[in-house]
Specification:
With 280 residues, the protein is α/β, with parallel strands linked by helices. The protein has a single domain, classed as TIM Barrel (Alpha-Beta Barrel), CATH 3.20.20.150. The protein has ten helices and eleven strands. The strands form two sheets. The chain has an eight-stranded parallel beta barrel with strand order 2-3-4-5-6-7-8-11, surrounded by seven helices. A two-stranded antiparallel sheet has the order 9-10. Helix 5 links the parallel strand 5 and strand 6. The chain starts with 20 loop residues before the first strand and ends with a helix.
């Protein structure tokens, strides 16, 4: 079933467009937070919570295909041939809702062809964004850098907490080495994963803020601990948000709801309220 519905629809906005700037810090969300619903309902979720900025997950753009080689081939075919007007229509939905679409999250792995990598940049252009984020491997990053330079789109490398695999982005040096490849390679720092991997995001942000395109805000326990409701983990969310506020770093702080919870919109409201209190 496709995660995308293209029919026009009225969006409930009783009080006009949302604005989730809090004391100078833009709090938004990765649309993956609303992964339990298709695109239109996810956009409505942003509106209901009051979030005015989105990093769009590829899961809200691409159809779902069965797992396995045949499904993989069908997905690749879709990526290479989907009419770009369908992609542009997605941007129109966000514009209608008054939500800033700041980045497209297109996860690139080693089995992607160069054409498939390039197509992610073409879709980012159709969405009208100047930033892509990606959960990629270290080994595929040079091929990403080549396309990023061709399309003049900055790519933020997203990390996880797997410090045992040198081909995964987790340790600070993996991000630093990737940024040396090109000025178009940057960082999408997930502060929860970074903390769980054993590192403090605050000094990393201080040192590399000019090359960080977005943050993912989540709470995890240290030492590879679980995703937790905001305030119940160890991740220095407040310290990170206060740093953005104090230094006026123009980095979107995107909530990524991944812990075990109840109703998505209700949990996202809690996350947003936690961030608002942290910025008071």
């Amino acid at each position: 079933m496709a995660r995308m519905a293209l029919a026009a629809w009225p969006l409930a906005r009783a009080f006009g467009k949302p604005d989730s700037h809090v004391n100078g810090v833009l709090i938004g969300a990765q649309s993956y937070s609303f992964r339990d619903r298709p695109l239109d309902a996810a956009i409505q979720g942003f509106v209901d919570v009051g979030l005015s900025e989105c990093e769009l997950s590829m899961g809200h753009v691409e159809p779902e295909f069965p797992r396995g080689p045949e499904g993989r081939a069908a997905l690749r075919n879709w990526r290479l041939n989907v009419p770009l007007d369908e992609i542009r229509a997605i941007r129109g939905k966000f514009d209608q809702a008054g939500i800033e679409l700041s980045a497209y999250a297109y996860n690139i792995r080693d089995d992607f062809t160069d054409e498939e990598i390039a197509r992610g940049f073409v879709m980012a252009q159709a969405l009208g964004v100047k930033v892509m984020t990606t959960s990629a491997t270290v080994s595929v990053t040079p091929r990403i850098a080549a396309q990023a330079e061709k399309y003049k789109i900055v790519v933020g490398m997203h990390g996880h907490s797997n410090i045992k695999d040198p081909n995964e982005f987790a340790k600070p040096e993996t991000f630093v080495e990737a940024m040396k490849l090109s000025p178009y390679i940057a960082v999408n720092l997930d502060i929860g994963h970074y903390w769980a991997a054993g590192y403090d995001p605050v000094p990393f942000i201080e040192q590399h803020h000019a090359r960080i395109v977005t943050l993912h805000i989540k709470d995890r326990k240290k030492n590879q601990g679980k995703n937790m409701p905001f305030g119940e983990g160890d991740t220095p969310i407040r310290e990170v948000l206060q740093l953005l506020k104090r230094e006026k770093y123009p980095i979107p702080a995107n909530i990524e709801y991944e812990y075990e919870g109840g109703d998505t919109v209700a949990e996202m409201r809690k996350c947003y309220e936690y961030c608002r209190r942290a910025l008071a």
